[in-house]
Design goal:
Elements lengths: L5 E4 L9 H16 L3 E6 L9 H13 L6 E5 L4 H13 L10 H7 L7 H4 L1
Parallel strand pairs: 1-2, 2-3
């Protein structure tokens, strides 16, 4: 196993594995296989309202059906929330980040219409 090649696939368990996700998983897995690298499966389950256990199981079953195996994982992003919060706090404390005090309405008001790109807005 080449320790320099590490790829990962991070599906969000908010529904079925879609064709784009399957394509990405296959490409990453094949690249890891070709280079004797490592393929890591990380479940992006931080969308608590929409993530489901059924979706997680469906994704795992779909990957197995495709013949994709993983060298590490599945890891769950939600298991690392305390680490992420600590890292964010450290960035704020060092002045490398700042807290946003915008309300949800403030943020909604700043969004571009779906048919407008950032370059067209300026």
């Amino acid at each position: 196993m080449d320790p320099n090649v590490v790829v990962r696939f991070p599906p969000s368990p908010t529904g079925y594995l879609h064709i784009g996700g399957a394509r990405t998983a296959i490409f990453n897995w094949l690249f890891a296989q070709k280079t004797a690298g490592k393929f890591i499966l990380r479940i992006e389950d931080t969308d608590i309202q929409r993530s489901t256990e059924a979706s997680i199981q469906g994704i795992l079953e779909s990957l197995k059906w495709l013949g994709i195996t993983w060298d590490e994982g599945p890891y769950f992003q939600s298991d690392f929330i305390k680490d992420h919060l600590a890292a964010a706090q450290k960035l704020v404390e060092t002045g490398d980040a700042y807290k946003c005090f915008c309300t949800k309405d403030d943020i909604e008001g700043k969004k571009l219409p779906l048919n407008m790109t950032a370059s067209a807005a300026t």
